Amino acid sequence: MRLVIADDHPLFRMGLKYALMHQGFDVVAEAADGLSALDACRTLQPDAALLDIKMPGMTGIEVCERLRMTHPQVVSVLITTFAEPAIVQAARAAGARGYVSKETDPESLARQLRDIVAHPEVDRLPQVDVPRLTPRESEVLPLLAQGYSNKEIAKNLGVSPDTVKDHLARLYAKLDAGDRTQAVSRARSIGLLH
Q1: Cys staple from 25: which of 20, 80, 112, 176, with CB 3.0 to 4.6 Å?
Q2: Which one of the record's GO molecular function terms can you name (predicted)?
């Protein structure tokens, strides 16, 4: 199987290359940034691209999206330490077919890559549970994130502070949060706030 690997950390990239070669993969190119990875995929037409998410110039997710549009036969797989729900959702939307942890051992990585490339139609990205918010909760949440007090939120929405407290209690429950800070943090991590 022909691979392009992309990671902006040279030592990790080199180790990954040798680990994959030892597992029987043909690493046809290495890239230190997203644009170079995209160029290598366009030129060399690998079976798969193993992409770090956070790279200079163009993220791994942006590379996935471009490959999906221009070279859909190249299977995009993200390798990262970041498993935040919002990132997983963005990866899925961009067309990534898999998501592998940098903490995976070489044998598991090889097995996962072979499975992903053999069956790219199977979604192997982690599932993310995003709670459904009511329209009013969707109005309260951004104000909460901006640091508004209950009184300020109430005034802004034309409701009583007690009504705001009720909305906040439901938001906390839906977001599994104990306080305002946790609610905002959780909402950001699952993509409800940007």
Answers
A1: 20
A2: DNA binding
Residue 68: count of CB within 10 angstroms of its CB: 16
Residue 27: count other Cβ atoms within 10 Å of its Cβ: 19
**What ranges do the domains of the chain cover?**
2-118, 135-189
Distance (Å, whole) CA 1 – CA 136: 51
Assign domain 2-118 one CATH number from 3.30.300.20, 3.30.2350.10, 3.40.50.2000, 3.40.50.2300: 3.40.50.2300
Say if strands 48-52 and 26-31 run parallel, antiparallel, or are unpaired: unpaired
Q: What is the pLDDT of residues 115-165, one digit of tens each?
A: 888 887 665 555 556 788 889 999 999 999 999 999 999 999 999 999 999
176 CB-contact burial (10 Å; exposed 0-12 / middle 13-18 / buried 19+): exposed
Considering the four listed CATH numbers 1.10.10.10, 3.10.450.50, 3.40.470.10, 1.10.1040.10, the one that applies to the domain covering 135-189 is 1.10.10.10
DSSP state of 154: H
DSSP lists the bridge partners of residue 76 as 49
